[in-house]
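I have been asked to look over a protein record a colleague put together. This is what I was given:
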Amino acid sequence: QMWEEAISLCKELAEQYEKEVFDYELLSQNLIQQAKFYENIMKILRPKPDYFAVGYYGQGFPTFLRNKVFIYRGKEYERREDFQAHLMSQFPSAEKMNTTAEPGEDVRSSPGQYIQCFTVQPVLEEQPRFKNKAVPDQIINFYKSNNVQRFHYSRPVRKGSVDPENEFASMWIERTSFVTAYKLPGILRWFEVSSVSLQTTISPLENAIETMSTTNEKILMMINQYQSDENLPINPLSMLLNGIVDPAVMGGFAKYEKAFFTEEYIRDHPEDEEKLNRLKDLIAWQIPFLGAGIKIHERRVSENLRPFHDRMEECFMHLKVKVEKQYGARELV
C-alpha cells in the first residue's frame, strides 16, 4: 500500500512511454493506474505499522549484533508482544530484559545474551513542499510512518511528591532520540541505530499539552477520513469519541484541570502562564472537533447502537456547556 512510491515509478515510466518509445497505449494504461493510486491515497485507510527498538547485549551474540541497537518496522497490526515472542524464538538462549534503560557494562561484557525490546515513535520529517500549504491529512499521514529515520522513546519519570489522586501532576517525560543509518522502510525492514541522544525532559504541563494536541489531531484526522469515505466502519470513531466525552470511561481532561489550573500551581509557576493558556486553548478547541465527529456518528450509527449514541451525545452536551463556560467557545470555519 505504498502508493506514493508506485506513483514515482509510474511517472518515470510515463516519461519513457511519452518521449522515448512513443507508446501512447501503454502511456494511457499507466496514467489510469497512476490515477487509481492517487484515489487510493485519499480514500483507503492504511494501518500504521509500529516500530520497535531492539538491543542485543552480551558477548554471546555475533559481532554484527553484539551490543548494538536496531529499529525494526513491524508488520500490519503486529503487537509488540507478538513481535518480541518471534524475536526471542530466534535466540532461545537469550534472556529478555524487562527495563528500557540502557544496560551497564556488566551486561554488555557478560558471556550471555540479553535482548531489550520496546516500541518507539517515528518522527515526521519536514516536507519542504508542504510548508505553508493546506495539505490533507491523508497525504501527510504516509510520511508520519514512512521514509523515517528518527525515532523517539518517551519514558515516564516521577519527580517530587506523588499525588495518588492525580498522577499527571508529577509525570515528567524523559525523551530519547534514535537515528537509524538509513530511512525505513528500505531494502530491509530493520536498520542499525547510528546515534542515540537524550533529547529533552518534558514537564508534566508540557506532557499534557502534547497529549491534548495529539488527541485533537487524531479526532480531526478521523473526521476527514469519515467525510471522504462513506464505507468506513463506525467502531473506531465510536471508541475515540466515547473515550473522551464519557467521564465513566476516561475522565477526559479533568485530571489536567486539577493538576494545573489551581491557584496553588499558578502561584508557584508564574513562568508557565503561556503554557497554561495553550492547554486551555487546546481544551476549548476539542469541543468543535468532538461536535463534528458526533454529527458524523449520528448519521452513520445503526439503530441497535442508537442508545449508545444518545448517551454519548448527552455526555458531550454537558461537556460542551462546562468547557465553553470556562474556556470560551471555538467554531470550525
